[in-house]
Write a structure and sequence with these properties.
Blueprint: E1 10-11, H1 13-20, H2 24-32, E2 39-41, E3 44-48, H3 49-58, H4 64-67
Antiparallel strand pairs: 1-3, 2-3
Length: 79
């Protein structure tokens, strides 16, 4: 079965929920916390697929070793 939301450029809450595989209440929580890019048109939210895809790419989680190099223990200047 093909996911119709994957082909749409503008999605509503229900379609975004299906696209991301998360509940509508979680999406509303993310909107309230300003954690997800959303446009409000009247009383309804709309989401651009391109913007959501970029938002997802920016939040890729990698394993701890890949995040940053460890800094040396003494980084302060000694006189």
């Amino acid at each position: 079965m093909e996911n119709k939301s994957a082909n749409k450029q503008i999605m509503d809450i229900k379609e975004l929920s299906e696209y991301l595989g998360i509940g509508k209440s979680k999406i509303y929580s993310l909107i309230k916390l300003k954690k997800i890019p959303a446009s409000k048109i009247g009383r309804q939210y709309r989401f651009s697929k391109d913007i959501i895809d970029n938002w997802l790419k920016e939040r890729i989680v990698t394993k701890k070793d890949d995040l940053q190099l460890e800094l040396p223990a003494n980084t302060g200047n000694k006189k």
